[in-house]
## 1
Amino acid sequence: LDNRPIGVFDSGVGGLTAVRALQRLLPSENILYFGDSGRAPYGCRPVDEIRRIARQDSSFLAEKGVKALLVACGTMDSNALGDIVENVTVPVGGVVRPSAEAAAAATRNGRVGVLATAATARSGAFGRALAAARASLTVTAEGCPLLVPLIESGHGAADDPALGEALDEYLAPMQAAGVDTLLLGCTHFPLVSDAIAARMGPGVTLIDSGAEGARACARNLAEAGLLCGQERRGSSIYYTSGGTDAFARLSALFLDAGGAGPIRGVEPFRL
Amino acid sequence: LDNRPIGVFDSGVGGLTAVRALQRLLPSENILYFGDSGRAPYGCRPVDEIRRIARQDSSFLAEKGVKALLVACGTMDSNALGDIVENVTVPVGGVVRPSAEAAAAATRNGRVGVLATAATARSGAFGRALAAARASLTVTAEGCPLLVPLIESGHGAADDPALGEALDEYLAPMQAAGVDTLLLGCTHFPLVSDAIAARMGPGVTLIDSGAEGARACARNLAEAGLLCGQERRGSSIYYTSGGTDAFARLSALFLDAGGAGPIRGVEPFRL
């Protein structure tokens, strides 16, 4: 039994999809979240920068004494998981492998779609993880450079016309390929899952990479005997390198019980 | 007389609006262009990163022996012009002051709109430059975080629906304020000026910050006796830290005579 907090981080608010899932799965755990909104989005940065950012973000939480890290960011996980594992001494999990395994288990026709940021799509990480989870899947992957900027600039509502135009473009290859399972490979994307589901129809299963990452994290903690021993409800503390007001506003869209709190501002780390 | 090239740089292809204007104004000048597409867009980065990037980009061209620098990027100019001036020994000009002066001269009703990236809008640089150019202007400024991602991901066509949705949002405050002059404060935005003009109507003058920066650069070179002495047509060389193919394709939308050439790839500088 281990009462230290679980560390979760992402480029911004997207990783809160994983936090919400963790809070539901393991309500007595304490959580430290870091959302690097002051440097978001990561998806348009070169790999060299993503890897250095990964070390900085993971060090920030490791130094606060977490017992495990959940990399709740598809861009980080697919480009820099090895750097993070090397950088900290606690167990590290991500979102790519758990969600690829969930998608491989969910598909009936063997056709899986992946929506991700440009950097994640370029990395090919989801394709490799899907192939490792189950041979002979047909994978259709699409880089979606506009979705994070749209969501983070307030265009995440299901009926937002600009969001609709972007989704129509990104989903057309998924529909053409006949996927029955669509992996949301960026933890921001569940925020627009209603708009995606409306376009893909009820026959398509959406896989939430943040929630799958949280499930795998919970499983790994249990197996390692690292779950906390307290009976009372755990507390969560949120750090952001962007504005705390904007973080509070966006977090309310992701989290139960009206959003995040307490939220603490930190200066963006110098690359 | 001075036959060294003029250096021009931007986060990506946007600064080519200034290059085209320079090539038309001063056809015998040689030009070195650097488009930092491998690290674009700059507009979502923290100011600290923008300032360090400004030093790297300006050093790259200064070391190639340019006689003057044109900072053809509203984000750079508004956040880091002082760093660039400090960093190089040649004359440096930007786009903010020249285009603010052009807008102040063009407006009849004293109401000027500014469209810029998020970082430029936050800096307030255009507002200060407009106030310096002419007191008692009413300025309506809008940060437009989606326009560069839209343009750079292939959504720049005048009839593009996603572009249209974003422009409708960004132009509504301009129409409500009754501006008669609209300053395109990011050198990417002239690429979508047809779509902007169609929405604003013929009574509104659009100011192209890249072209105004080029005009001021030509004026300053002439006054300093730094124009080149050759009679033949000058040559332009283009460097990009992104893919050369993507740069070639996008450049054709900006430049006369079918686009840029020769284009040379360089590795993105390490921040």
Note: The first strand of chain A starts at residue 6 and ends at 10.
## 2
Amino acid sequence: MKRETLAASLREALEAPDAATLDELAGEHHPADIAAVAAGFDEADRLRLLQRLSPPERAAAFSYLDAPLQLAAARSLARGALAETIAELAPDERVDFFNRLPPAVASSLTPALVHAEREDLRRLRAYPEGTVGAVMTSDYAVLMLAQTTGEAIESLRTQAPDRETIYQAYVVDGERRLVGTLSLRELLLAPASARVGEVMIEDVIAVAADEPRSVAAARIAEYDLIALPVIDDSWRLVGIVTYDDAMDVAEDEATEDFHKAGGTLGDLGPSFRTAPILQLYRKRVFWLVLLVFGNVFSGAGIARFEDTIAAYVGLVFFLPLLIGSSGNAGAQSATLMVRAMATGDVHVRDWGQLLLRELFVAGLLGATMAFAVSGIGLVRGGPQIAAIVAGTMVTVVVVGSLIGLLLPLALNRLRLDPATASAPLVTSIADAAGVVIYLSIATHVLVT
Amino acid sequence: MKRETLAASLREALEAPDAATLDELAGEHHPADIAAVAAGFDEADRLRLLQRLSPPERAAAFSYLDAPLQLAAARSLARGALAETIAELAPDERVDFFNRLPPAVASSLTPALVHAEREDLRRLRAYPEGTVGAVMTSDYAVLMLAQTTGEAIESLRTQAPDRETIYQAYVVDGERRLVGTLSLRELLLAPASARVGEVMIEDVIAVAADEPRSVAAARIAEYDLIALPVIDDSWRLVGIVTYDDAMDVAEDEATEDFHKAGGTLGDLGPSFRTAPILQLYRKRVFWLVLLVFGNVFSGAGIARFEDTIAAYVGLVFFLPLLIGSSGNAGAQSATLMVRAMATGDVHVRDWGQLLLRELFVAGLLGATMAFAVSGIGLVRGGPQIAAIVAGTMVTVVVVGSLIGLLLPLALNRLRLDPATASAPLVTSIADAAGVVIYLSIATHVLVT
């Protein structure tokens, strides 16, 4: 059913006196679709829809809503309905949600949750935002060493209803230390009388709870895993990260890197379209103002050569072109580097090889562009100007490219995020270098 | 085992007279690790390692190698060993690999493959690069309407060894039309005597084979699927895309968008570190040279106002600062827009709302920056210059931001990729606008 049709059917079901039609509709559709339709409703209708869904359906739809809509719904839902919803959420969703609630609301809700859930929540909330611990779930399937594979399959069948996945199960010893793993596929293929301890994979790929969440996402992608077990310092199993959470993390991280590359500070929240205007202002103003002062260096560079400019005003014509090329070449190589570092293609130790290659590429690029502009130089200023412009072009493209290449590496060495080597930052630095190079060459040739 | 230790053990096993140690090592380690270690070996050792692995292990490790290493290995491996390897690859991997082989090598290998595999290959290769058809696999698990769930589980057990996944199975009718789906989890929870036709989900989320592959990746992420069925025009099941392939697609697409945003043309291949120098040159030179000519407009703008500049050389000091701010504000809003469009947060129809919000945000940003620079204007040129600089600043930040906002929307309307609204392109356009605005205001105030 198309979302437009679903929206119409849901509106109709809301008008019906009993909840049967609504339950049926919700049962037939993916909660992601219900949430998408609800997001398009106005606030009152959205609330009415959520109120009337059964708790599991409500929780499922709720978990697909954007964070601001979740908060708005939480503020308006009846306390009882909200507590039911929270109880039905998967542990990882629940923690995310609690972390976003105003502290007063969060603590007023905690008593309503049953003991085991409170414990889960307390434990998972203890991991700082951005770590593996904060995105993992504690709903994992466990097997015992002595079970036969037949018993293990039976046990997974029992665990199925409230586990995030039963397709990958984990084997723990008496102290809950992770000693092996088995996929449901491997269990189905093993002889029914074999013991779990005999057929399990002992060399388990795992991640520590306090590592950055991007590490878990990268590991899941690298090894094509359905879930990645999370362990503490004593190798005890504390949770799992599933492939679908890893996908969300990877998308979030790519978006954050994108924003940084464009010169915006950190996390913008879930939506550019709905982010509050003042928040957008705050995220953007820092770099813009900082770069103004960066550009003052370019201005100061120009001021040093005011005599040259006053004598040869024609030089100013080539100024945007030459400093622009320096900045553009820098932005290109910075983008290539930042992304290659984010995907693990390039490491700091490769800098020697990269520098050499970049020198070649930038040299070729500079030569091509020098050729392209020397014609304009010849027409507008004669052979001497053409030579100045061509020489400057080769130099600034090489210098700009090297700045773009080295800045992300240097940031990484200083344990700063290389993605902060934004296009605007690199462009500003390369611009200032371009101004000084151009006017130095021009002054040297024309004035002395 | 750490990769360094694995590398040492593998080297040792290569020296052993028989293959037993090597087989054991390969059995105990993830093929991604074997491939990572092999990539670090020199070419001769890598080849020796691949030659001596058993065909399934060799194919598994091979599929985790980067494309250039795969090609190099294909050129050097004995014809028989290569054919064995290809036969063991998953169909989607096999198609990717064949598509990258030089045509002569590809056609010389085809006869060595058994008939069914040749058919698969022919069919999958028929879908153009970048479509769902080109990334799907034909190794999916199928169930029949009349099977009981007990029989269905038994049938999945039989299909398990050579299916990409058995965790999601597809129900087809006599004409191979997709009529339903069941997860292994749902099968395990259903009563053993129920029929597949009774318990299956009929409202299947699917994708057409000729849609862009990014659509499949987005759908898998949105609905948290393990696999997405691929259908043809008559709703016949032709393949599936699994979550791990979707992760690779999402990463590829994000990388491509990144490169475009940084002003590089299209796909760089798998690695920035190892891409050939001439290829890097070709991908980068297009935008750089194009933008040189874009910057000629800035130069021409300046040339129109040469008299003003000659009379007030001090104005040149503020030139990089003002046009830089215009370009930076434009790069910021273009980045935010491009990413929001890529993740589906923003659609072309939202342009009115976005424009209004951007006007507010850019106005605030411009006012802040005008305040920041008016001090410098006052010190260097007195109140009149300060007023010119502040007025220009507000105008260029607003104009730059709107260019950054509208260019991706316009490209999308013209059915071009909005990611082509690269930072360098937006910066160049905003720069040229900044030059004209600044010198127009200055000429108006100072000269007339």
Note: Chain B has 21 helices and six strands.
